């Protein structure tokens, strides 16, 4: 299904680099987000302590993952929340469809959920005649244009207000053209409040799920998450299986890290803790709450002690905001649900390191991502590991698509290189040719071309170091 | 073929992730402490920075403060939970007011369209506040339904100064939410907002456009 030509980060990144409007949109947004985050962590010691605590909470959760998931299921059941398990996105979609069909639901409103993006839930439900409407303003904007999110926290970050103004005036009934952000927001409010009122069901993601209490925690600013989870008679939540933590108080440090790292806010407008459907004496709230726990490759990632750190992620997006590559090419160039540094390690592990070879190499390994990661995921180390897995995986490796990133040219080149380096005489002859004919090495040679495509050809020195040392009278080594 | 649940759990167990659990050093949370007066100050600063508004009141006069506010703002209807002690006091104070007090005492299905289209404001109590960042803690339930603080365009929230905790962490512990959480619990720090268009803040996107905190000074040493 995926050929290398279909999913080439190199090609799409090159296209994105030529789009000056897109680059300006991202540059401005990322600069703002970096400054806002920095302002929230004025004390480096405090920040480090908080990161250590957050990392420990996530690491503890992962160490006990199977037990915590079972405990979560039992606690949810006690609270009246029904838990469903899905190994694949297809299974998760089928579960949601059957829950909706059982209630005769045809209108679904959605709070923001990256897992539902992973499932391509909107397209799936629409193919079954169910309206699946995004209600987060950013998600609503991109859904109007049939686009995917370009950032996990700010999905419409690639668009500027002029583009959104044109889109609203063309696609929202009776809307007049305006570039005023308050007026644009009011337009969306008017449309979406009617949708909340009429919806048969609401869907949300989960930021943290608490095993001990059976609580689903949702972090948001707009209130659309509360609308989606409390107004319709049916609430379905979807989560990746890594989202569980042991105790409710464990959530506090993660929450503190999440809002500050993501948008530079000390606190979100709403922190919504859902521990059950409407009780018999309540006047509102959903009659039913369901939780769908999705695997989709996560349990395989879990099987590797080093790669498991990928699952610590709390989806704050700070790695994107600080990534020199992401800032220049934007989120869509990655052609993946999760863009940026976290996407570069997550997507290849879900879809295969061979088909996503470009992603694991599309990094300068500068380390900005791991420096800001609130749960200290060693993203550059994992990238290097995945690069190795793509070509020289060991037999016990569980990495998806291991060894499929090998190409014949690269293989031959490395073999030639190794054989030259192992034979001193051959090495000296090669060095003599490379230095004497240094100006005549064609830049278009295979492999060398990967360098010369966007850089000047490196010029070998006129004499090798060994030759120079000998001419200075040093003995041959 | 096994069911998805068993298959997932079996794969996770096969990974055999074992080892000592890393310790949780919560010192960074524990040292965030303030005096009661500082807590009020911090909460207010944090929330005002994101456009929450404050009305100052004393234990004896807050219902009158709420009434004066409603009339000043020309609110036509104020939705409230009639069964709470605060609700009863509010009802007494609002007798004869130009603002109609509407009890939320029937299932939402009986007046959903009205709730969305013609209620001007909702009044709720709170179970506490968070000083560190600013934030109100609410535990909606039978007496004060979930949508009371969400659907009306203005949310009036009653906060007693003595119930403000240092941090979210200490509040969760003190309120016992980690043992027996209510079906819905909330922290609310301001009016609904978004920055999804060009990172420009806009208020009142889906939830209330205004959050007005009725801050009751019940700290020791303050005259009632």
Task: State the main characteristics.
heterodimer, A: 477 residues, alpha/beta, Fumarate Reductase Iron-sulfur Protein, Chain B, domain 2, Rossmann fold, 3 domains, four-stranded mixed beta sheet, 23 helices, 10 strands, 51% helix, B: 224 residues, six-stranded parallel beta sheet, 7 helices
Please, what is the average pLDDT of chain B?
95
User: What would you report as the Rg of chain B, rounded to the nearest angstrom?
Assistant: 21 Å
Instruction: Please report the number of helical segments of chain B.
Output: 7
CATH topology of the largest domain in chain A: Rossmann fold
CATH superfamily of the largest domain in chain A: NagB/RpiA/CoA transferase-like
Averaged pLDDT of chain A, please?
94
**DSSP helix count of chain A?**
23
Q: Low-confidence segments of chain B, ≥5 residues, pLDDT <50?
A: none
**Secondary-structure element order of chain B, N to C:** HHHEHEHEHEEEEEHEEEE
Condensed summary:
Chain A is 51% helix and 10% strand. Chain A has 477 residues and is of the alpha/beta class.
């Amino acid at each position: 299904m995926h050929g290398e030509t279909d999913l080439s980060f190199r090609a799409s990144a090159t296209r994105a680099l030529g789009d000056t409007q897109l680059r300006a949109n991202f540059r401005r947004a990322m600069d703002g987000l970096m400054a806002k985050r920095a302002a929230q962590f004025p004390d480096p010691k405090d920040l480090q302590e908080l990161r250590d605590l957050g990392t420990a909470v996530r690491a503890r959760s992962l160490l006990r993952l199977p037990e915590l998931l079972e405990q979560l299921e039992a606690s949810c059941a006690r609270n009246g929340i029904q838990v469903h398990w899905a190994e694949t996105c297809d299974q998760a979609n089928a579960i949601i469809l059957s829950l909706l069909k059982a209630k005769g639901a045809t209108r679904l409103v959605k709070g923001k959920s990256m897992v539902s993006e992973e499932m391509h839930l909107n397209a799936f439900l629409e193919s079954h005649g169910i309206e699946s409407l995004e209600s987060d303003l950013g998600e609503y904007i991109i859904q109007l244009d049939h686009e995917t999110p370009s950032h996990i926290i700010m999905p419409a970050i690639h668009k500027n207000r002029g583009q959104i103004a044109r889109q609203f005036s063309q696609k929202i009934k009776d809307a007049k053209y305006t570039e005023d952000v308050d007026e644009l927001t009011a337009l969306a409010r008017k449309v979406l409040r009617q949708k909340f009122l009429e919806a048969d069901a609401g869907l949300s993601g989960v930021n943290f799920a608490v095993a001990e209490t059976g609580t689903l925690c949702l972090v948001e600013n707009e209130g659309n998450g509360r609308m989606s989870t409390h107004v319709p008679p049916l609430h379905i939540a979807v989560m990746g299986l890594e989202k569980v933590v042991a105790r409710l108080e464990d959530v506090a440090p993660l929450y503190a890290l999440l809002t500050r790292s993501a948008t530079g806010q000390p606190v979100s407008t709403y922190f919504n803790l859902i521990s059950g459907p409407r009780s018999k004496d309540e006047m509102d709230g959903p009659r039913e709450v369901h939780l769908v726990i999705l695997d989709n490759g996560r349990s395989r990632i879990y099987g590797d002690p080093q790669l498991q750190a990928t699952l610590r992620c709390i989806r704050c997006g700070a790695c994107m905001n600080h990534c020199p590559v992401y800032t220049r090419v934007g989120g869509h160039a990655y052609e993946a649900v999760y863009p940026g540094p976290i996407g570069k390690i997550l997507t290849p592990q879900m879809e295969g390191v061979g088909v996503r070879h470009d992603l694991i190499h599309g990094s300068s390994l500068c380390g900005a991502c791991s420096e800001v990661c609130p749960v200290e995921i060693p993203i550059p180390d994992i990238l290097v590991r995945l690069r190795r897995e793509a070509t020289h995986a060991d037999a016990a490796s569980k990495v998806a698509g291991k060894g499929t990133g090998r190409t014949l040219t690269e293989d031959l080149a490395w073999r030639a290189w190794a054989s030259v380096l192992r034979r001193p005489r051959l090495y000296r002859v090669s060095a003599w040719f490379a230095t004497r004919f240094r100006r005549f090495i064609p830049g278009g040679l295979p492999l060398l071309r990967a360098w010369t495509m966007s850089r000047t050809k490196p010029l070998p020195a006129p004499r090798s170091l060994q030759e120079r040392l000998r001419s200075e009278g040093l003995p041959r080594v | 073929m096994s069911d998805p649940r068993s298959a997932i759990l079996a794969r996770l167990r096969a990974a055999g992730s074992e080892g000592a659990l890393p310790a949780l050093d919560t010192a960074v949370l524990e040292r965030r402490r303030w005096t009661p007066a500082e807590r009020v100050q911090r909460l207010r600063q944090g929330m005002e920075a994101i456009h929450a508004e404050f009305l100052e009141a004393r234990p004896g006069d807050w219902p009158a403060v709420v009434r004066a506010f409603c009339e000043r703002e020309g609110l036509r209807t104020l939705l409230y939970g009639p069964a709470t002690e605060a609700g009863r006091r509010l009802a007494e104070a609002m007798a004869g007011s130009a603002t109609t007090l509407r009890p939320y005492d029937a299932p939402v299905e009986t007046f959903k369209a009205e709730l969305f289209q013609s209620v001007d404001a909702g009044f709720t109590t709170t179970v506490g506040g968070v000083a560190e960042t600013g934030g109100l803690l609410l535990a909606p339930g039978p007496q004060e339904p979930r949508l009371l603080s969400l659907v009306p365009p203005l949310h009036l929230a009653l906060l007693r100064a003595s119930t403000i905790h240092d941090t979210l962490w200490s509040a969760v512990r003190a309120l016992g939410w980690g043992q027996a959480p209510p079906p819905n619990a909330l922290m609310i720090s301001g009016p609904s907002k978004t920055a999804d268009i060009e990172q420009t803040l806009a208020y009142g996107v889906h939830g209330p456009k205004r959050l007005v905190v009725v801050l009751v000074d019940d700290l020791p040493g303050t005259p009632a």
